[in-house]
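Support request, priority: normal
Reporter: lab tech (M.K.)
Component: structure prediction queue

Hi team, I submitted a job for Tetraacyldisaccharide 4'-kinase from Cetobacterium ceti yesterday, and the status page still shows it as pending. I've pasted the exact input below so you can check whether something in the sequence is tripping the parser. The sequence length should be 334 residues. Please let me know if I need to resubmit or if it's stuck on your end.
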Amino acid sequence: MKILSFIYFFITSLRNWLYDKGILKTYSVPGIEVICIGNITVGGTGKTPAVQFFAKKLEKMGRKVAIVSRGYKGKRKVEPLIVSDGKKILVSSRESGDEPYLHALNLKVPVIVGKDRYKACMFAKEHFDIDTIILDDGFQHRKLKRNRDIVLVDATNPFGWGALLPKGTLREDFQGGCKRASEFIITKSDLIEDRDLEKLKRFFKSKFVKPVSVAKHGVSSLCDLEGNPKPLFWLEGKRVLLFSGLANPLNFEKTVISLKPSYIERVDFLDHHNFKEKDLELIKNRAKNMDANFIITTEKDLVKLPKDLSVENLYVLKIEFTMLEDNSLQGMEE
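Reply from support: The job had stalled in the queue. We restarted it manually and it finished. Here are the results:
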C-alpha cells in the first residue's frame, strides 16, 4: 500500500506541477462565474447537501445558477447530458448518476453532467440563461478554470489518515491542495468534541490564511417512500437496520444514534452502489433476522433503488446542511 500511495503521490504531484507551470492548459468559461465545491479526501465530506445549500444561497443573492457534475457511474450515451432543465427531470438516475439526480430532485436549476467538465460548462452556458455554475466535486479537475474553490473538510477525518490513496483517503498532497483552496468549510462538526473543532479551525486559519466556515449535517426529516414526513421520535427505543452505499457509512450511523434507537445494525455497500433485487433480498432477510422495526436508508441511495420496490417499513432519513459559522463567498455580494 505504501508503494502504491507513493506512485499515486508522484503522478498527482506531477500533474499539479504541470498545471501550476502552465504546461498543461486551463480553460475558462467567458462571462460565467464558476464556483467549485470539492475536497482533498475521497467521499464523506457532505458535498451533495453543500452543493444544494450554495445553489439556494446564490439564488437568494440574485444569481442564475446551474450545476455541473461528472455524473459518476451514470450510464449515459450522450455527453454532456441535461439531467434537469430547471423545470423537470429529463433522465433517470441510472443515466445521470445518483448525486446529479438528487440535485435535480431538490432544486429548480439546470443540472448537467459530463466527463469533460469544461465542455459541460460551455454547454450549460450555451443552453441556459445563467451567470454562475456550481461545479460539483471538481477540485482535482484542473483543466477548468474556477473563480472560487470551496474545499470541504470532514471533521471526523480531516487529514485522510495522513496518506494518499490507497493507503489513506487523500486525493492529492494535503499541503499543495489546501494552498489552492479559496476557503474551507469544516463539515459534520457536530460529530466531534468542541475542543477538537476549535483546534481544526485554528489549524486551517493559521496554516493557510483562508476563510474558514463551520457546518453540520443534521437530520431534517424521516420520510416514507412517497416523501411524506414522519415523526423522528418513531425511532426512539426501536430496532433499526441501516443500509447505504456511502464512502463513510459510520457517520450515517452516528446521525441515527442521535435519534436514540435501542439497537442498530448496518448493511454497507460500496460508494455509489446501484442496488439490485438480490441486494434488497439481503436487506429484507437481515431485517427479519434482527427483528427490525425500521429499515432506514439515505436520499442518495433511494434514487438508486428499483422502481418496483417492495420493502416493509423502509424509510428515508433526509439530512440538512446547516452553517454554524458562515464565512463563505466573501466579496460576492459586493
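Residues 2-20 form the longest helix (19 residues). Residues 199 and 205 are 10 Å apart (CA to CA). Let us know if anything else looks off. Ticket resolved.
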